[in-house]
Inverse folding.
């Protein structure tokens, strides 16, 4: 009996640690997907450096009791899987959203992004935000375009004065 308690406490401590270190944590109802679909989804999550684990709701509720993440307990009914990202705040929602669209199963329950709780609808909106790298490249492209145009104009003026 004592060993079972020690094992549960180890899982609770693991969950607490993940919530404390995570940039974001998203919880989904994962029912209805096949083993192959689950494997494909897990592969995509791993490639995005997202930690995906199924935990018992009771253990998660114990782990987040009295913390800033306690609000998530409201959505912990039925099957729940958790996706944590420790560097890209939108990655779990974005990758899971792709799988939800592809498999037409599963749904978001809620989550935390940078310490703020978001319900299902808000997580769906966050899922549409491109990755940090994509946003940076779009930004750099928008900056580069006017500079390139200006350089061409200056070059043409210089060429016309030489002629």
């Amino acid at each position: 009996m004592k060993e079972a308690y020690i094992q549960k406490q180890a899982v609770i401590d693991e969950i607490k640690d993940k919530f404390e270190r995570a940039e974001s944590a998203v919880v989904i109802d994962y029912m209805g997907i096949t083993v192959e679909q689950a494997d494909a989804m897990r592969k995509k999550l791993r490639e995005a450096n997202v930690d995906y684990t199924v935990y018992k709701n009771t253990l998660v509720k114990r782990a987040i009791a009295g913390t800033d993440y306690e609000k998530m307990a409201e959505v912990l009914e039925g099957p729940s899987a958790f996706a944590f990202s420790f560097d890209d705040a939108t990655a779990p929602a974005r990758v899971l959203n792709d799988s939800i669209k592809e498999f037409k199963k599963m749904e978001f329950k809620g989550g935390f992004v940078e310490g703020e709780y978001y319900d299902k609808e808000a997580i769906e909106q966050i899922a549409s935000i491109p990755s940090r790298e994509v946003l940076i490249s779009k930004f750099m492209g928008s900056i580069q375009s006017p500079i390139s145009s200006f350089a061409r104009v200056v070059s043409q003026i210089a060429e016309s004065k030489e002629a």
Summary: The helical segments are 2-21, 35-47, 57-64, 91-103, 120-127, 132-162. The chain has six helices and five strands. The chain has a mean pLDDT of 87.
